Amino acid sequence: MTSVLRAQGLGKRYGKRWALRECTIDIPAGHVVGLVGPNGAGKTTLLKLATGQLQPTAGGITVLGAPPGGTPAQLARVGFVAQDTPVYAGLTVADHLRAGARLNPRWDAAMASERVAELGLAPAHRAGKLSGGERAQLALTLGLAKRPELLILDEPVASLDPLARREFLQGLMEATVAHEFSVVLSSHLVSDLERICDYLIVLVDSRVRVAGEVDWLLATHHRLTGPRRDPERLPADQHVVSARHTDRQSTFVVRTDAPIHDPSWVVTQLSMEDLVLAYMDKRPAAERRTALEVQR
């Protein structure tokens, strides 16, 4: 299957600090991808590398099979909605649509006009007078009317209220169904991603911790709760993602393709939020084992 984004050993450094390092991912076409991680994890850096706004320090990246932003034709295939859904405060809604038509060779004027009308955005209103939700919808309209093969959105709903977020994401999902393009959406609001994404990438400390289709990830990760146990006593095919211990009980999140038959464990399935939080646990396995030994 065609990859919309492929990175191999990708890294970006600012001075001595790595904003992204050793990033290797291969995202198939046709997915709505959730890119999640704490602030400073490297999400924006990865998306700017994918749109050609930054150049890698290490490794390489291709988008839709070509270097990001290498040619006008390549730029036309990728839409981008940056953080804070940027629009020009002094320009009217109609001005934004006219600019979009001039700058984008694949511009769908009918879609843009219809969407603006459906949203109730008056063409003569200046963007600076719109609400946060309306500005976000205008920015999304500009991205959609470009008719991209891949739409990249960098935390577009972080500053919106719950109703505005829901309406924005609903409009995005309706557009992906109608026009069949791929989406990469970064956010630290896992509940939003859980509703719309079918592929997940978790970034922590500038590195990819896990990536894959959501259904597969949830099927291969489990929470084990039972009598206190050292992680090293678990079977070799159970990779420990996170561990928590009390005096008598251990709770592990493990990744495994094999069935879990140990009757001492209570096995429960994870939500996407559970999965993300487990991978955001920064304590290394050695530290977890040391903590367990100290508590004995």
UniProtKB/TrEMBL annotation:
<dbReference type="InterPro" id="IPR027417">
    <property type="entry name" value="P-loop_NTPase"/>
</dbReference>
<keyword id="KW-0067">ATP-binding</keyword>
<dbReference type="InterPro" id="IPR003593">
    <property type="entry name" value="AAA+_ATPase"/>
</dbReference>
<dbReference type="Pfam" id="PF00005">
    <property type="entry name" value="ABC_tran"/>
</dbReference>
<feature type="domain" description="ABC transporter">
    <location>
        <begin position="5"/>
        <end position="230"/>
    </location>
</feature>
<keyword id="KW-0813">Transport</keyword>
<dbReference type="InterPro" id="IPR003439">
    <property type="entry name" value="ABC_transporter-like_ATP-bd"/>
</dbReference>
<keyword id="KW-0547">Nucleotide-binding</keyword>
<protein>
    <submittedName>
        <fullName>ABC transporter ATP-binding protein</fullName>
    </submittedName>
</protein>
<dbReference type="GO" id="GO:0005524">
    <property type="term" value="F:ATP binding"/>
</dbReference>
<dbReference type="InterPro" id="IPR051782">
    <property type="entry name" value="ABC_Transporter_VariousFunc"/>
</dbReference>
